[in-house]
Amino acid sequence: MHSTTQNSKNKPGFWAHFAISLTIVGGMLAANFSSKAAESFSVEVIGTGKPVLMIPGLMSDARVWRPTAEALASDYQLHLISIAGFAGKPAIEGDLLPKVKQELLQYIAQHQLQRPAIVGHSLGAFMAFNLASSAPDSIGTIIAVDGLPYLAPVFSRSNDTTAQMMQGQAAFLRQQYQQMSTEQLTAMTAQGLFMQASSDAHQQLVLSMATASDPKATGQALYELLTTDLRAAVSAITSKVLLLGATGALSSDAERAQAQQLYQQQLAGIAHATLEFHPQARHFIMLDQPDWLTAKIATALKD
Known about the structure:
This protein is an alpha/beta fold. The protein has a single domain (12-302), classed as Alpha/Beta hydrolase fold, catalytic domain (Rossmann fold). It is globular. The chain has helices spanning 13-23, 66-72, 97-110, 123-134, 153-156, 163-178, 182-191, 193-196, 200-211, 215-227, 253-266, 285-288, 290-302, and strands at 41-46, 50-55, 76-83, 117-121, 142-145, 241-246, 273-278. The protein is 44% helix and 14% strand. The two termini are 35 Å apart. A seven-stranded mixed β-sheet has the order 1-3-2-4-5-6-7, sandwiched between helices. InterPro entries: AB_hydrolase_1 (IPR000073), AB_hydrolase_fold (IPR029058), AB_hydrolase_sf (IPR050266). One of its GO terms (molecular function) is hydrolase activity. This is Alpha/beta fold family hydrolase. The chain crosses the membrane at residues 12-33.
């Protein structure tokens, strides 16, 4: 798919900037839950009620979800996940996202969480789709915040892209990140900050989390995102899915239509899926439009 905007070949446009941004992309702690539940992630638990896992995106941690969780804590028990290697959390060796999935499913079983809802942002949304397609009987409502079953079409602008086609580029990116210094990772992230959030304060939060992230872990996660295509697998999901997209950084109606088509195609195989966009929000919707997002999550969790 290609934008029909005038002079599109001469300006970077939404998808180029989004590719940059993605490649750089009330209660007390519950006594019966471990604050370090697994090697690949840690957990903070607040609130009481129906369980909800909240998973952040690439180079982010639980801080992005805490205000949303606090707004929901009177009705839900929120499990705020922070993934190894991101935002100052110690990195692990080997595969990252497959281990996160395995250990999250173990965490759900160990603590006897009954069909918890999963709220995920970006990479966290991919993890939500991964969990629900791998264990459909164990996972409840999915709320994906600006994240997809397969990342690569964001680069290619076409859902015809396959994981096999992306293998070489993914391996190259992983190698680049393995050789990257913290300063280089920070500089790369800074290039795409305007796509991430509107306010300077929120942009600096995104940047500070990236600066504290491990470049090798980031590269491994990107490799796995680009070479893991869940579009066929998500047909196994039986629970309700809500995908919330952000179009606040788009410059034209054509680009907004292109984004909506790409997102909608990735939901085609899911029986009970809904797609909504916020026209002003940027990628970190929870930072840009917190009231709107909290209201959407609350409604979806009640249905």
